[in-house]
Amino acid sequence: MIYEMRVYRCVPGRLPALLNRFANITLKIWERHGIKQAGFFTTVIGESNQELTYFLQWDSLADREKKWNAFQADPEWHAKRAETEKDGAIVTNVEVQILQPTAFSSVK
User: What pTM does this model have?
Assistant: First the structure.
């Protein structure tokens, strides 16, 4: 099992729009593609309170590539993303890391 950590840095004031998009659009599309989330977090104390950090769980890099590419090519995702960004961009930067649990991790 591997995990993907994604940190989305939002345009100031646009974090609520990003949270709404995940809650009402993205998660439903992910479910259709078999993408499993392992947690979503907003920053309370840190560099910026305009960040969303989340983790995805994958069986392997090949699993990630197959499912993520299918999601990225999904016509509904493209349409809904464009619709949610009609008033302007929501995200300024995305940081991605692929993580492997250690032998002593509580998650495997």
Answer: 0.93
